[in-house]
Amino acid sequence: MPLTRILLYVRDVEKTARFYTALFGLEAQRAEGDRIVELVDPQGGANLMLHPAAKGQKTGQATVKLVFSVADVDAFCRESNARGFPFGPIHRTADYAFANAKDPDGNSISVSSRGMPDC
After folding, report:
1. Cα 89 to Cα 27, 34, 92, 97, distances in angstroms
2. Smallest Cα–Cα separation from 46: which of 23, 73, 26?
3. How much is the average pLDDT of 76-95?
4. Cα 59 to chain center, whole Å?
5. Residues 116 and 71: beta-carbon distance below 8 Å
6. Domain limits, the chain
7. What is the pLDDT of residue 12?
8. Which of 7, 50, 64, 94 makes a 20 to 30 Å CA pair with 29?
9. How many CB atoms lie within 10 A of CB 104?
């Protein structure tokens, strides 16, 4: 049974949708009358569902991190930083590299070349 959707509770659905569509190429889908914006991965990865957070709901849980696969972490971070979406330092292992950041609601995200061919 594949994991197909991840739901994030966010303060500003539109701002967060712009973040993920601009940075990772996800496509926003909206159904009339639905508060959830679904961000679809055109390459077939898991979709992100953005749901408005309740006023008292805590965002930015540190126990979950969204990891996006990229072939070239250095190039991705350079391009991302130039577009105003900064990532932290690039960490390297013998087999892959990764860098971390936060989305507009403080959710932990990472870009990683782990498991990518030719990395």
Report:
1. 28, 38, 10, 10
2. 26
3. 95
4. 15
5. yes
6. 5-112
7. 93
8. 64
9. 17
